[in-house]
Amino acid sequence: MFDSSVTEPTDEQIAVLGDLLQNANRIVVLTGAGISTESGIPDYRGPNGIWATGKPPTIGDFMENEASRRTYWQRRLESYPSLLAAQPNPAHRALVDLEHAGKLSAIVTQNIDGLHQRAGSDPERVIELHGSAHVVRCTNCGTMFSGEEIQQRLLDGDRYPACPVCGGILRTATVLFGEPLPREALERSIALTRDADLLLVIGSSLVVNPAAKLPLIAKRNGAPFVIVNRTETRQDALADLRLEGSAGLILPRAIEQALP
Ligand code: NAD
């Protein structure tokens, strides 16, 4: 166990992560909101996070309560432009380099921002455990729409958009509180983590289950488990290596060292 309490890791600590990455060939990366803060998207539990500024509704509240849905679309109208404008940062891009070197099995992400794909990660290797904010779907007929199309309707004054196909209730394709995770995504994440020879967790407080269970699965199967995070997490005690600091600084350095 290699621990650090400094703000940014030392060269030696980066080198240890570089060695682990160099020796691994089936890496699973688990990312949380922290990998996208350097792209300007607040994390959940930080001072500007949604936790502080207004929690999203539960699935029950959303489906049963029109007032809750109206508030949801009003917030979406205000918040989606900044999500659309956000650009991938050096941490997202470093993971693309890891993939191109043939070392990455998958990126399992709790994020809904689509920034891994926009950075150039193969969409087939990005498993979105909590869905995507860039897709809107009808809860009745299942028709999908792009986030931008529905945003245009909101901007045009339709502040409570209904499905244009069947009139049903629309929602973003993200997982709301009280809702199960997409089964296939979860099963694939678990299977790939079982097969992984390194689990790298980036920017997650490791509070939200079942994503927070992946470290235990990796450890049981003998794979080292590494955390790159600005603050403490729930599972620091389980980690083989823990680098405290900014993902956008740490990952490019470590991955550059690992690749020929
Ligand atoms: P979290 O907010 O609980 O934890 C984020 C962690 O990242 C914190 O421990 C924080 O210290 C750390 N962090 C912040 N900036 C960092 C940086 N630059 N480098 C390294 N570490 C950094 O987030 P979570 O664990 O992902 O869980 C919260 C839930 O919020 C998820 O379910 C996710 O769906 C949702 N969410 C997603 C987004 C997004 O899509 N970008 C944004 C907010 C919330």
Descriptive report:
The two termini are 27 Å apart. The longest helix has 20 residues, at 66-85. 38% of the residues lie in helices and 17% in strands. It has two domains: 1-40 and 87-130 and 179-260, 3-Layer(aba) Sandwich (Rossmann fold), CATH 3.40.50.1220; 42-85 and 133-174, 2-Layer Sandwich (SIR2/SIRT2 'Small Domain'), CATH 3.30.1600. It is an alpha/beta fold. It is built from ten helices and nine strands. Strands 3-2-1-7-8-9 form a six-stranded parallel sheet, sandwiched between helices. The protein has a three-stranded antiparallel sheet with strand order 5-4-6. Bound molecules: nicotinamide-adenine-dinucleotide. Nicotinamide-adenine-dinucleotide binds next to helix 10. Nicotinamide-adenine-dinucleotide (NAD) binds at residues 32-34, 36-38, 41, 43-45, 49, 110-113, 130, 203-205, 207-208, 229-231, 233, 246-248.
